[in-house]
Specification:
single chain, 180 residues, 5 helices
């Protein structure tokens, strides 16, 4: 009954009022949709801000992994060819990995920082072993060179394991935060 009454009232409106009413309804619906869109956009911005630390940590971790891959190749090159340039590149790779690990330790929570401390300790051992290797290379040829290279590769694998564990923890936290 009320729709019939409204329909008869609307049919009695002049044309300009019908057009104005139609545009008003469309305008109100557009305004409601714009407000909802703005609210949702704000929520996306807030979510993105909360995920930024995870993204930065992942970038540091990616840099470390790339540096360790480079170190692996440089070690192989140094063990095969030797040379001052290859030796410098080994130390450069270690320096980058250690500095990036320090940056990562400063930007994470305590549990990840503990894992990174372990990785940092292995990196220090790796650096010490490379120093010993290069000093062996400078002296007369000894059987200890191959043993030192094997030791370095074991330390490198241990370091990669620590960083893989950190990466898994960061990924789990990122996904958890993303769901919330």
């Amino acid at each position: 009954v009320s729709l019939h009454v409204m329909g008869s009232l609307f049919s009695n409106f002049p044309v300009y009022r019908k057009i104005l009413t139609g545009f008003s309804v469309i305008g109100v619906l557009t305004l409601v949709m714009a407000l909802l869109g703005f609210f949702n956009l704000n929520q996306i911005g807030t979510s993105t801000e909360s995920l930024t630390p995870y993204i930065e940590e992942a970038a540091h971790l990616s840099k470390i992994k790339a540096t360790l891959d480079s170190f692996d190749k440089d070690l192989e090159r140094y063990a095969t060819i030797g040379g001052e340039e290859n030796k410098e590149q080994l130390f450069s790779d270690l320096y980058i990995a250690q500095n990036t690990t320090s940056l990562l330790k400063n930007s994470t929570d305590a549990s990840i920082a503990r894992k990174l401390l372990s990785a940092s300790t292995v990196l220090d051992d790796l650096s010490r072993n490379v120093t010993e290797l290069t000093s062996l290379e400078e002296g007369p040829r000894t059987a200890g060179i191959n043993e030192k290279i094997v030791q370095i590769y074991r330390s490198l694998e241990t370091t990669r394991t620590y960083y893989a564990d950190v990466e898994k923890t960061l990924t789990d936290r990122f996904n958890s935060n993303l769901r919330n």
